[in-house]
Amino acid sequence: MSFSDFQLIPDGASTLASKVDALYFFALAVSAFFSLLIAVLIFFFFVRYRRRIDGPQVGERIHGSTPLEIVWSAIPFVITMVMFVWGAMVYYEKSQVPADAEEFLATGKQWMWKFQHPEGHREINALHVPVGKRIRITMTSEDVIHSLFIPAFRIKQDVLPGRYTTLWFEATRPGTYHLFCAEYCGAEHSRMIGSVYVMEQDDYQDWLSGGRSGLTPAESGAALFTQHACDTCHKEQRTGRGPSLHGIAGQQVRLASGRTLTRDDAYLRQSIVHPGAELVAGYPLLMPTFQGQITEEGILHLIAYLKSLSAPAAEYSPPIPPEGAEQGPSSADPSEVNP
Ligand code: CUA
Question: 3-class SS at 183?
Answer without folding.
Answer: coil
